[in-house]
């Protein structure tokens, strides 16, 4: 029998019909349910559950005590902090079967979801956005947006490198950590891509404009 191309701690359980990418590490007491697809070079910490049919992209990091329920999709490079809570039903009742009412939650490339945050199902969380620790998120999040609070509201914007910018009214922002520049245009936060420069760390689907 060929050696696995991923690491699986002996205490974890993998159901049938599961796909796990090369270089992924699955630590203690995890359970991956049937039909789940996990990409390459991911890390699943202790006591992580991945539900039926869930898709997890490459390079994701899911910290301890997180359940990624059916209906949730993580694109590449998503960070899920410890004890993050996903949901998949808006109005649960123990005595009513609502499995046909699962709502989809999409977390786009590069987003960070902080420790103990709660994600109410049916939302889209934009690329490279940042949800603060303990937030209760109930609505869609734009690319690069920083949300925090209960219920969470937008507090500013965030760079690809993770530096947070508070709302200052400026139209053009330069990151002091990585020197990337952004333009705020009609409530959109757009990365200014320098001509003749390719940044392999970014997703071409998020807002990008060329500097003239």
Q: How many beta-strand segments?
A: 27
* Lateral arrangement of strands in the main beta sheet: 1-4-7-10-13-16-19-21-22-23
Main beta sheet strand tally, sense and closure? 10 strands, mixed
CATH class: Mainly Beta
Q: Label the overall shape.
A: globular
User: Class by helix and strand content?
Assistant: mainly beta
What's the helix count? 0
- Mean pLDDT, to the nearest integer, reads 92
Count of the separate structural domains: 1
Order of helices and strands: EEEEEEEEEEEEEEEEEEEEEEEEEEE
CATH superfamily: Hexapeptide repeat proteins
Separation of the first and last Cα atoms: 57 Å
Low-confidence stretches: none
Beta fraction: 25-35%
Helix amount, in percent? under 10%
Question: Radius of gyration in whole Å, from Cα?
Answer: 18 Å
What does this entry look like structurally?
- The chain is mainly beta.
- It has one domain (7-165): Hexapeptide repeat proteins (UDP N-Acetylglucosamine Acyltransferase, domain 1).
- 0% of the residues lie in helices and 34% in strands.
- It is built from no helices and 27 strands.
- The chain has a ten-stranded mixed sheet with strand order 1-4-7-10-13-16-19-21-22-23, with no helix packed on it. The chain has a six-stranded parallel sheet with strand order 3-6-9-12-15-18, with no helix packed on it. A four-stranded parallel sheet has the order 2-5-8-11, with no helix packed on it.
- Strand 24 (172-174) and strand 25 (181-185) form a beta hairpin.
- It is globular and about 50 Å long.
- The model has no long low-confidence stretch (mean pLDDT 92).
